[in-house]
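User: My advisor asked me to double-check a structure prediction for Peptidyl-tRNA hydrolase before group meeting. I don't want to rely on an old file, so could you generate it fresh from this sequence?
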Amino acid sequence: MGPMLGWAPNFQEFRSCTGGAVRRRMGRVVGPQFPRCRPQVAGLGNPGLPGTRHSVVMAVLGQLARRLRVAESWARDRRCAADLALASLGDAQLALLRPWRLMNVNGRIVARATELFGLTAEEVCLVHDEHHKPLGKLALKLGGSARGHSGVRSCISCIDSNMSPALGRAMPRLRVGIGRPTHPDTVQGYVLGYFAPAEQEELLPPLLSATDLLLDHVRERSQRPSSSP
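Assistant: Sure, here is a fresh prediction for Peptidyl-tRNA hydrolase from the sequence you gave:
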């Protein structure tokens, strides 16, 4: 079953990962409005597959953008092949990132944006789905392995290549549980499948909690001294 049109407002971003609220600026490259943004929040998903379990974090980023009052400020940045929204949270300045490419190459986009903003790996927070966790279960993980997630694996690999080995594993990650498939051989079909209406309703409170977790992380991270040059 496809995404429900009435699944709103928290799941508006499911209907199009790069459309709707995104302001097109096709004639020019969109540049950062801040000299340096800390940290960066990057959502891993599949553009063109809205409403699937693998793209649940696009709804998280949409809710976060609304909380930060930048929901209408998404703009295309061709330098890193992503939609970008810049926001302030107290003294913190941060960049929200929605990659255009498929999940397994999201790392190239995240690494490029990290380079453009002059960030360290620790200043990048990945938000991604997690089929090892029950539906709606959230966990903020400070680094670690990809555990089979193709988007996270891509990010770790590309960050390591651009900076130095092992740095990619230092990225904080907010994992959003999408439930476990019934059999290991059905994982690909499961993560690319759509949520049932009951699952959509069950996910609404966790999405709000995910936003709170991200905002708390940004506030805490912004109080640390930067380790970048």
